[in-house]
Amino acid sequence: MKVMTIIGTRPEGIKMAPVIKALQDTPGMESVFVNTAQHRGMLDQVLGLFGLKPQYDLDLMKAGQGLEELTMRLFEGLQPVLEQEKPDVVLVHGDTTTTFVGAYAAFLKQIPVGHVEAGLRTNTLYSPFPEELNRQLVGRMAAYHFAATEANRENLINENVNPASIAVTGNTVIDALLEISERPVRCRTELEEIFANGRRTILVTTHRRENMEDMQHIYRALERIVDQYDDVQVVFPVHKNPAIRRSVMQVLTGRNRIHLVEPLAYAEFVHVMKHSFLVLTDSGGIQEEAPALGKPVLVARETTERPEGVEAGTLKLVGTSEERIVKACSTLLEDETAYRRMAEVRNPFGEGDAARRIIDVLQGQAAASGGQKVVSR
Q1: Known active-site residue 257
Q2: β-strands 297-299, 278-281: how paired?
Q3: Which of 61, 110, 208, 322 has the fewest CB atoms within 10 Å around its CB?
Q4: Which residue of the set 209, 224, 259, 357 is catalytic?
Q5: What whole-number distance in Å separates Cα of residue 22 and Cα of residue 170?
Q6: What does the pLDDT look like over 55-67, one tens digit per residue?
Q7: Catalytic status, residue 131
Q8: Residue 266's closest CA among 30, 41, 5, 38?
Q9: Is 209 in the active site?
Q10: Topology of domain 2-170+353-369, CATH
Q11: What is the pLDDT of residues 320-365, one digit of tens each?
């Protein structure tokens, strides 16, 4: 079976690296790895970390390009690759523009699509934007749905997806996280010095488009927290998006015990998570990763496509409200019982064997179909 994997962003690289490596190591599987390079530098770091090199690098990152231009260039770049390779299955991940276009380009050629991390839903099309629509559209095209959790499976069934096409695998990000967390990592001197001071660290990340107008509320909350607690510091890897960087710098430049750092390589980021007291983020993947390391996560969004974490108690939605963020952080900083209640919950997003489960499904389908392609849901 020839399996083409299409990725283009740093999160996709992290989450699909275990799958690509498993494909390469499995007899009878021919792996074709395509990197659209929707992200460039940060994704290259991840691929280097996992020792992966794409057969096709479309190099589509371009400063200032909008989603419309990116979408057109993705179609133009992927079409000849699909025509040349003629894969039996195309794997895409999650909900990026690369994910949607990769799935649709394969669908137009009647190549079965496997959707990894299928079934995430907020059911609010503009939250997150454009990810929620992307994942729903891919869900309509996919022949194989690799859902991380039972709740994701139920979301798909509620949309009339054939249950036989759904496999609950856990999330591949846990595979990647556990592999990297076991490696010895030496962080840049700046970070080593920060963690040597003995203060409790709040790790912060922000990047969501739908939060852009409200991000300064988050940053003002951070000012108040470090002013209130002398033993607390913030480590904030600032996203490369120029608008986000301007917003961060306007509020937080020069603030005592708020450390604004450049984006971290994945291994460094895992190291920082391990040494943090809690995490405040609007990221999706971190909502799955931090609980695996026993870290409470405050989600700076009003919705999440990962309600399992909220129900289990590892995540708490705090939105972008300054008051809600300060209150939630204060509770965790002051109440040891409340902290343990979040930190000690079993991670609902997997045990680290998701990639192997995905390969098992594909092998089973190849055996059952006798090499015939599946072109219907």
Answers
A1: no
A2: parallel
A3: 110
A4: 209
A5: 15
A6: 999 999 888 889 9
A7: yes
A8: 41
A9: yes
A10: Rossmann fold (3.40.50)
A11: 999 999 999 999 999 999 999 999 998 889 889 999 999 999 999 8
